[in-house]
Structure formats: C-alpha cells, structure tokens
Amino acid sequence: MTDTAVPPVALVSGAGRGIGRAVAVALSEAGHSVALTARNATELKETAAACPGPTLVVPGDITDREFVDELFERVEAELGTVSVLVANAGAGTSARLAKTTDEQWQQMLDLNLTAPFRCLRRALPGMTGRGHGRVVVIASVAAKVGEPYIAAYTASKHGVLGLVRSAAAEVAGTGVTVNAVCPGYVDTPMTDETVAGIVASTGRTESEARAALEAKQPIGRLIRPEEVAATVLLCVTTPAITGQAINVDGGAVQS
C-alpha cells in the first residue's frame, strides 16, 4: 500500500514540453509530487511553474546510464520513493531505410527503448517491494504499424511495447501495473519538427504539411497533449489495466 501521509511521487521524463509537460501538470493537479527530467533546464523550470504542487527539477541526459541511477537517488532523497513512472522522453528521425545511418538507428534505440528499460529496471523493485506502483510508457501508434521512412523510430517503438508487455506480465499480481500509451500525431514541438522536415524534403508549404498530418487522424485534427495526459491518468488510477497499449490517435489504428 502507498503511504497516504505524504503525496505519492511521480517521475516524468521528457517533461520540459509537449506531452511530458501536460502529463506532469495533470499528475500535479491529481495530488502527486512530481519529479521532472529532460535535457533543457529552462523548459523544466517552465513546467515546474505550471504545476500547482511540489516539484523537483533534475536536468540531465536520460540516455546516460549513470544519470538514471543519479536521478532516482536524488528523487528518493528529496521527494520519496517513486510510485509512478512516466517514461515519456523520446524523439523521431526520418529517412529511407537504405539511407538510415547507424547513428540514426542507435539514437532511436538509445532514447526510445534503452532509456525506458533502464528506468523500469530501476523503478520496479521498489514498486513491487511496496506492493504498489504504476508505470506508463509513452510509445506511439508506430509501436503497432509500420510506415515508410521511419524504420528506426518504428523499430524502437515496437521494441518498447514488447518491453511493456513483458514487464506487465512479470509483475502481475504484485500491485504494480505497466502500460503503454500510443498517440498518433500530437500538437507538440516534435510534430512541428516533423512538419519542418516535410517542408524541406517535399517543397510543400507548412500549412499543407500540417494538414497532411492532421488527415492521418480520422477525427481530422492533431491530438492534444492534454488528451494523452488524461489517458496516462487513466492508467495511473485504474489497477485493472495492465499490459495494454492504449491508442490516442483519433481512430487511426483500431484495436
């Protein structure tokens, strides 16, 4: 059981902007003390200012093996044991498979797969020992389907979904749940970068490129970060949901 005398502690990676910021604010509003990590300290401070409850800002590189241990140690020392982990940090890259470099491939695996693995490895023993915990990995609909020109990104997201499913099976019955949330194209800075890439490679205007991404969702618009955050809260508050990959994509991938 959790200690009700103090607020539960949530750790959110990639918390400086976009989905991570929306998740951090939602968890803070729900009564959690929230530890925020990302590379950009200025953005993290802006997220902290938007949170109504206690926060801890810990800038760093989540792909650094030593930083993951340092991060958890600091959170445990200053806020308490992590009871909610939201592994949100991620990035994308686009190239034809034949032109995808080893560096691009490794970057996607390091950030989108290995970093969540290390965070789960560090968080799960404490959660299972207390008999309560929630892990939510922000994956992507690319964890379920393949699209051209994003082979490295898609492979990393398929991999992290496998990690989620295995972890959920391993800790089932301990009071710990592990789920993935799989957004479509979300109205975030990451999508802005995708739009810029489309403009640069195709000659389309920015509005044309954005409209093409909006059309990938049957609802005809980009997903809002707050909609992803609401799904994360569903996973955090519902103990019967585990081992799932919940789409937030406006109906693009039916499952």
Overview of the structural elements:
The protein has 255 residues and is an alpha/beta fold. Helix content is 48%, strand content 15%. The chain has two domains: 9-184 and 224-248, Rossmann fold; 187-222. Strands 3-2-1-4-5-6-7 form a seven-stranded parallel beta sheet, with helices on both faces. Helix 3 (65-78) runs parallel beside helix 4, helix 4 (102-130) packs parallel to helix 5 (151-171) and helix 6 (189-202) packs across helix 7. The radius of gyration is 18 Å and the shape is globular.
Order of helices and strands: EHEHEHEHEHEHHHE
Q: What percentage of amino acids are in beta strands? A: 5-15%
Task: Find the count of extended strands (DSSP E, 2+ residues).
Answer: 7
Kindly state the mean pLDDT as a whole number?
95
Please compute the radius of gyration using only Cα atoms. 18 Å
| Structural class by helix and strand composition | alpha/beta
Count of structural domains: 2
CATH superfamily of the largest domain: NAD(P)-binding Rossmann-like Domain
| CATH architecture descriptor text of the largest domain | 3-Layer(aba) Sandwich
The name of the CATH topology of the largest domain is Rossmann fold
CATH class category name of the largest domain: Alpha Beta
Shape: globular
Q: Reading side by side through the largest sheet, how are the strands ordered?
A: 3-2-1-4-5-6-7
